[in-house]
Amino acid sequence: MPLKIAFAASRAPVAQTARAALIGRYGDAHPAQADVIVALGGDGFMLQTLHGSQHLNAPVYGMNRGTIGFLMNEYGESDLVARLEAAEEAELNPLSMTASTPEGQSHKALAINEVSLLRAGPQAAKLRITVDGRLRMDELVCDGALVSTPAGSTAYNYSAHGPVLPIGSDVLALTAVAAFRPRRWRGALLPKMAKVRFDVLEGDKRPVMAEADSRSFANVSSVEIESEPSIVHRILFDPGHGLEERLISEQFN
Fold first, then answer.
1. All structural domains of the chain
2. For strand 144-148 and strand 114-119, is the pairing parallel, antiparallel, or unpaired?
3. Which of 26, 50, 81, 148 is the one with CA 20 to 30 A from 161?
């Protein structure tokens, strides 16, 4: 039977043009009936597609029609079916975030790349860090902090001088953003199943926002983060260009 492909594209004109061309060549299946979903855009749209299709059985194959494409394959129209049939699959578990506010509200979100806390005012944030119920740092003064998965370790985490994590490693990166005190603290590597809690200190004059893959929540008082093994995101890559190879190559660029 022919491969049933569903095409999704970002709003960018170049992505919409590509989608129309591909649908004209291969047709367009409904995502619920598709064997594979092809996402056209950049990494941000790829994350959006993965979140939106996590209830479906189809893996997602990205083709770069955006400005950043670490999670994407090169764009091409003529041999798509052959590329999909030969593609390598990577499985990713997202992070689960629960952010609480001083008013007692609770916000939940999933993050494939990272959960980050960022100062939302002119003064540096003050955070207390607990891991698996054990206090690990009384006070971190910083512009922010984040917890990253291996898949997200070359994104914001890497820009904040965090480590690149091999895709098969069962670890998370906890990375400070512009740490002021302790000044030389560069973060920690934690087991994948660790439960991390940040408490915001002096939140009235040092407000903090939380983000989970760009979903933002203002004025948080605490954030709890842990892996969500019950959810599996399946991503396809061209042979020899999978996440493991990309993560290694990134460290030599």
1. 5-92+232-250 (3.40.50.10330), 95-227 (2.60.200.30)
2. antiparallel
3. 50
